[in-house]
Amino acid sequence: MIRATHTPALFEAAVQETVDLLTRGEVVAIPTETVYGLAANAFDEAAVARIYEIKGRPASNPIIVHAVSSALVRKCVDEWPSQAQLLATAFWPGPLTLVLPKSDCIPSIVTAGGPTVGVRWPSHPFISAVIQRCGFPLAAPSANPANALSPTSAEHVQASLGSRVPLIVDGGQCQVGIESTVIDVSGPAPQLLRPGMIHIESLEAVLQTPVRTKGHNEGDAGLPKRSPGQLLKHYAPKARLLITDWRDDADLEQQLTHWGESKDTTHLIVYSKMSSLFPAHRISVIPHDPEAFARALYAELHRCDTAGAKCIVMENVPATPEWMGIRDRLRRGSSS
Ligand code: TXA
Ligand code: MG
Prior knowledge:
This protein has 336 residues and is an alpha/beta fold. It has ten helices and 15 strands. The strands form three sheets. It has a nine-stranded mixed sheet with strand order 2-3-7-4-6-5-9-10-11, with helices on both faces. A four-stranded parallel sheet has the order 12-15-13-14, with helices on one face. α7 links the parallel β10 (191-194) and β11. The longest helix is centred in the last third of the chain and has 17 residues, at 290-306. The relative contact order is 0.14. It binds threonylcarbamoyladenylate and magnesium ion.
């Protein structure tokens, strides 16, 4: 069941229906500015258990909690260090998740048994209105089956989880388009756990201190998994995703042969290059600025999957800080 929100009356009705369901312990798919989320009352252990069940999410992967007031944020965490305050002032409401020591209000199922909780104050008007009226925070991972592509429209949710949730709220296409930046500020030195559109240089400028990156260490021998969602092979389309550069059509054709892919079942996603190897309906051109690129990225990957692509070739993106969140998702989506 998809509910529209594009008039004030529809918006109000959808908020009320969502609040009623959430209050009864149900799970609802709702829009946020990053990607669509699968939301439940973060204080309700049984409701959160339903999220894991619906997504097929491993119990070891913690869920982000969404709150929309300082009071509600503070209720979820045990400490509020000055670094958290600096980041919250600069970037909230928005696509940034802060990992902090959890409070006793947060059941351990939300944090996968761990001592910390990821908290985010989202900016999308729909989820904001819902949380305000509920009075409790919402645990919400992206509204996709575990390891699949995140949804950036209600139709994406409908296609994958439509039969498993009582309600999907349509809040339009997500404005940010990739998942929030996740930074751990629970220890003495801030650590970036997942890059996003708020990039490391912005975080460092606000904190006035270097932010450690994980060196994408997941799988590194001996290191504990700090953020289980950082596992490779996440954020992946069904088709094989190949990220590359090419000089000309001959070069691209040679690369396809090398990968064992046929150009007849391959889709191309580009922002600056063109190729006459493919018919127009199997080429997507997306804008070449990182914000617009991120907004379009998952929709294009979903579209290729729906069209039955076996392989997606995507033009490599720059290695500058503004592109790091996008590069991270492409790297994961293309790992095998
Ligand atoms: O933009 C977003 O963050 C979206 C929207 C719905 O808010 N949510 C989202 O949730 O992407 P999810 O569950 O798909 O990804 C959450 C990421 C995972 O990589 C998870 O491991 C990490 O955040 N995470 C959550 N809580 C954590 C914690 N306490 N410590 C470390 N990592 C945590
Ligand atoms: Mg996810």
